Amino acid sequence: MKKIFFFDRDGTLIKNIPYLNDPNKIEYFPDTVQTLKKLKSLDFEFIIVTNQSGIPRGLITTEQLNSIHKKIREDLAAHEIEILDILYAPYGPKSTHSWRKPGTGMLEESFKRYTIDKENSYFVGDNITDIQCANNYGLKSFFLGKDKIEKTIYIDKLSDISINV
């Protein structure tokens, strides 16, 4: 069974650039690669789950989104970090589609695609909907740089992730 760290994308692995539509504008946090390497050394694999409301708003195309995800995979592969999967919800904030966080559809799909050890998997996000998604699915979570308002572990930066293996 796979131990997975689920990551939100914008504001978590990369800096939040509203409606990012150009892969050349991706900016990583200073501790992104270091943290992923540390977690990889503990036998974790990585899945990105991201809401992308820019698609229905016409601010980003599916092709642009795919090129951004391709670049993220390539950038991290250069550091011997593989992203197992990237799932996205192309729905606006008022959508009730199960894939849009805090819905659990992207997590459910991940568990269908892969044999995942739920007890030893985690979710990291910077938005309340990320943590609600994790809580709704029964995953432990890390809330990146936010006030303490949900059942989770609070961290100021990615490298603050600490788990007992």
Name the CATH class: Alpha Beta
Order of helices and strands: EHEHEHEHEE
Number of strands: 6
Q: Percentage of helical residues?
A: 25-40%
Structure commentary:
- This protein has helices spanning 32-41, 62-77, 105-113, 128-137; strands spanning 3-7, 44-51, 83-89, 122-125, 140-144, 153-155.
- β1, α1 and β2 form a beta-alpha-beta unit.
- The chain has four helices and six strands, in the order βαβαβαβαββ.
- The chain is globular and about 45 Å long.
- By secondary structure, it is of the alpha/beta class.
- It has a six-stranded parallel β-sheet with strand order 3-2-1-4-5-6, sandwiched between helices.
- It has one domain (3-160): HAD superfamily/HAD-like (Rossmann fold, 3-Layer(aba) Sandwich).
- The mean pLDDT is 93.
What distinguishing features does this structure have?
165 residues; alpha/beta; Rossmann fold; globular
